[in-house]
Amino acid sequence: MKYAWIERHRHRWPVALLCELLGVSRSGLYAARIRAPAQRTLDDERLVAQIRQAQRKHRGCYGRRRMTDEVSDMHGSPVNHKRVGRLMREHGLQSRKRRRRRVCTTDSRHGHAVAPNVLQRNFTATAPNQKWLADITYVPTDEGWLYLALVLDVYARKIVGWAMSEAMPQQLTLSALEVALGWRNPDAGLVHHSDRGSQYAAGAYQDKLQALGITVSMSRKGDCWDNAPMESCNGTVKVECIHDEHFATREQARQAIVEYIGYYNTERRHSALGNVAPAEFERRWYAAAKNRGMQPLYVGHPRVTHRRPPPGSSQAAEVAVRG
Q1: Residues 51-73 as b or e (16 or more Cβ within 10 Å = b)
Q2: For residues 188 and 42, what is the distance between their CA atoms, to the nearest angstrom?
Q3: H/E/C letters for each residue in the chain?
Q4: How far apart are CA 132 and CA 157, in angstroms?
Q5: Neighbouring residues of 284: CB distance < 8 A, sequence distance ≥ 6
Q6: Hey, which CATH number is domain 131-322, 3.60.21.10, 3.40.50.720, 3.30.420.10, 3.90.400.10?
Q7: CA triple 267-275-42, angle to 5 deg
């Protein structure tokens, strides 16, 4: 380690001075230069290459914990998390986190009826389509804001509905809900939780939920913790998909978000799931349910047949993401 440190810094300070400070001989340093690298060093180099590959794949957003599971799978055997953390620090491969200014997307000053908080921060589920969370976030572009409405299935933390618009009309959240309903086709008894904003308390939205026997739940006023997993999902989308990007148009942002949702659902390891991707976590549940002879809650086909979108369109990309 001392010789390696000297080699990294020998262009800044004299080698003789560095050897004296670290208590090693110059002859030992020169001998180390021609000595074959140790197996540990070769393993570290291979591990660093795997970490770099994983960081490129996951947009530079994996920290030590997720990266440990990722490279362990690539390595074919468990890798110590402390070793992964050390190599990430030494080679500047830490995850990037940023925070940006906030825009208020919740308007609770309206005359619509507000539902009680049925969920009560109980964010556990034993199967898909038991609890859904919904919220709105925003994306900056040169053309102005692009607003994004999401619906999240609590069980596998999977994004099951989304819609985007340059404004926040009631149709935005309703469109996201219709995507989720068409894809998942849930049974009656599902709990739908959101904030008490006008988009979710509106008559058309509530009528849709009640017609399908879905229980409505709303957060208390100004309490983001009542919808914590949804807030976390919004933050993840912003940090990993939006904050490091510059979108000239809303359409550019729309395409990037649709692509990211596909990545989020199928590839990104989720800490709440034991660092398993949502799609894989859900697949395991269906496999276990099939082995137990249970009837699946949905088969992945929309309840309404739509005309197939033209190839290359944003609608076609969204269909591909939903699978």
Answers
A1: beebbeebbebbebebbbbbbbe
A2: 57
A3: CHHHHHHHHCCCCCHHHHHHHHCCCHHHHHHHHHCCCCHHHHHHHHHHHHHHHHHHHCCCCCCHHHHHHHHHHHHCCCCCHHHHHHHHHHCCCCCCCCCCCCCCCCCCCCCCCCCCCCCCCCCCCCCCCCEEEEEEEEEEECCEEEEEEEEEECCCCEEEEEEEECCCCHHHHHHHHHHHHHHHCCCCCCEEEECCCHHHHCHHHHHHHHHCCCEEEECCCCCHHHHHHHHHHHHHHHHHHHCCCCCCCHHHHHHHHHHHHHHHHHCCCEHHHCCECHHHHHHHHHHHHHHCCCCCCCCCCCCCCCCCCCCCCHHHHHHHHHC
A4: 9
A5: 276
A6: 3.30.420.10
A7: 85
Token pair belonging to 207: 């009528």
| CA separation for the pair 19, 16 (Å, rounded) | 5
Residue 159 contacts residue 264 (beta carbons within 8 Å): yes
The predicted model scores a pTM of 0.69
Which position has the token pair 């990104």?
268
The two structure tokens encoding residue 255: 């395409």
Amino acid at residue number 82: K
Q: Are 269 and 275 in contact (CB under 8 A)?
A: yes
**Cα(320)–Cα(306) distance, rounded to whole angstroms?**
14
Mean pLDDT of successive 10-residue stretches along the chain, which has 323 residues: 78 84 84 76 84 83 85 85 88 69 53 85 96 94 95 97 90 95 92 92 92 94 88 92 91 96 94 93 94 61 37 45 51
Q: Where are the domains of the chain?
A: 2-90, 131-322
